[in-house]
Predict the 3D structure of the following.
Amino acid sequence: MEPREILRSVFGYEHFRPAQEDIVNSVLSGRDVLAVLPTGGGKSICYQVPALAREGIVLVITPLIALMHDQVEQLRLLGVRAEAVHSGLSRKEIDITLDNCIYGNIKLLYLSPERLKSELFRERVSKMSVSLVAIDEAHCISQWGYDFRPAYLEIASIRDYLSEPAPFLALTASATPPVKKDIVSRLLLDNVKIYQRSFARPNLSYAVRVEDDKDGKLLEILTKVPGTSIVYVRSRKGTADLARLLISRGIDATWYHAGLSPEERSARQHEWVSGRKRVIVATNAFGMGINKADVRTVVHYEIPPDMESYYQEAGRAGRDGKRSFAVLLFTKLDSELIQKQLDLQYPEPDYLKRVYQALANHLKLAVGSGLEKSFDFDLGQFAGTYSFEPLQAYHALKRLEEQGLLQLNEGLHNPSRVMFMVNKTELYKYEIAHAVHEPCIKAILRIYGGEMMSHFANVDESQIASVLNTGLNEVVRFLQQLDEAGIISYDPRKEKPQVIFLQPRHDVNRLPLDLKRLAERRDHAKEKMEVMIAYVVNTKQCRSLFISHYFGEEKSQPCGVCDICLERKHKIEVEEDRIMHDHIMEMLAGEDLSVEHVVSQFSMDEEKKVLEVIRELLDEGRVSYTADWKLSLD
């Protein structure tokens, strides 16, 4: 099918959004493409449509495991065959999934970047018919980006393992000129076509409020501006505290952060998306992949660490094109707090080594072991056991992640998955020989269908228990027995954060820390922090222009709706009023004049304003009416 037909018949959209169709046509013609599309700009369509327009499979590389889950499930509901491979899966499940991508007519394979350098993947990808390689969050490849991931540096090497050349499509919502240059260079994009939507959001009014009483200002904003809102805070505890404050003041609010259970996160997100809760107070763990167009306000209770994060988060307001507001609250003490946060985020190398050694002890890993193994990880328990401050330990783990030593998946939620490992004949024989398991087998097939004979499927043990009218533990026991017998492959759900060792565990005395890179990352984070402070204290430049110029868009125009543009407009109006006021007073100094005569001395466009100024002069007692209704100076 042609791209427009696919868009309409599969995805239900009548028209492409700006730039989407050009991007789709470019990659279908075989060109490498870099697409910089704003948050909510529809990046996924740019590779999902080509996947269905050509033979073969599209590889989608993304660091966001939650996004993988969501998109795979959504595509399956649309009848599109998609799979995901990431560090949270068992080796057996990865093995079978990659085989299905070779022989099973899978159209999209979602991958975490860390999987690319595994021998298992590189051996299998050479047998796949790859039509396109899509790299989401492409800014992660650049050390100048705000979320550098070393594994992204391995992406270009995929070209050497493909059976035939395939175009690369790099996608990001925000990239400065140096980052765009880095993406093109490090991905080896050839004859690249760059598409970039404007960073300006004409319907979004940016504002900064310098307030000692942030709570009071937040309540004022939410009271004055009706509709759905997101309030971003930096700490998990802060989400609950602030939400409870809003609730106590009669505002229907809830809170969200990565430390909640998957069920709690899902329920609270649904409450907000469905409109049952008006305000959600959240950390930056909230918002990725959320499709809610009618958000009227996004309030940052604290200053974000960089402009990229702020632009993405603020950009979740007003996707329906209606007037919306992005407000950043700031106190004079915040600049000091930001410096302390920077120190916390970039611990000294000796501290990194202590955390690494403690982690290895915590997981009972010997030197040389642990490669690509995934472990449940409770940060609070870990920090308490080894007397670390939890937030500083978390940032140490993130720095070790930037060094390519490990990966920390926060709040990972992998549902239980099952696949039958025998054919129908062997399964029938097993059911006859093991009658106790027959009801469970039949219930699984009845609920989830026969596709489980060739693919892993998400299963809900409680749903199976309900059908069998038995207990949850009994169903889990049956599934484990079937797995041990080789009838199924059962991978129980994971709900805790996971830590994955991307390299074999090192002797801490030989830990390969790149000290130069650590220092550069800290310096770069400081530069980004200084940009945010400059944005906050700026009182002259249109805020939309400030953001656009930061991202290298020089031709943009003042928005006219941010706090600075509105203040400038107000000053101009005040000055125009003063000039008009003086002119009227000069006219009346010579003689008494009728209102009609005074108005006739100005243009038709100014008539309304002239009458307003005359009314003000009358109210102030500086002008009065004579007996024959002429204006006269008092």
User: Anything to note?
Assistant: Residues 3-196 form a domain with the Rossmann fold fold (CATH 3.40.50.300). DSSP finds 24 helices and 21 strands in the chain.
